[in-house]
């Protein structure tokens, strides 16, 4: 004999428990063979040009890293999300494309944003 709780759980699919993540939602705007990765483009960050394939982990990086916490642009959730959108790069879904390299210094861009 099953319990009320067991009956309720067995009548639901696993899809009811697995919600779309920010990453899934963002990736849905691309063709199925493409995905986003998020690069840290702040030269002063110890993880400069590291990449995250999970947006949530990238947002945690912005929240947890002191240099980002001290940056007025990333002190708020909204600021971190705006930066995540600006710093994301499209790549192959299976991550088979080479990781992007940091731009050379003095190319007119600072932190991935045009300076002029």
From TrEMBL:
<feature type="compositionally biased region" description="Polar residues">
    <location>
        <begin position="1"/>
        <end position="15"/>
    </location>
</feature>
<feature type="region of interest" description="Disordered">
    <location>
        <begin position="69"/>
        <end position="116"/>
    </location>
</feature>
<feature type="compositionally biased region" description="Basic and acidic residues">
    <location>
        <begin position="82"/>
        <end position="116"/>
    </location>
</feature>
<protein>
    <submittedName>
        <fullName>Uncharacterized protein</fullName>
    </submittedName>
</protein>
<feature type="region of interest" description="Disordered">
    <location>
        <begin position="1"/>
        <end position="30"/>
    </location>
</feature>
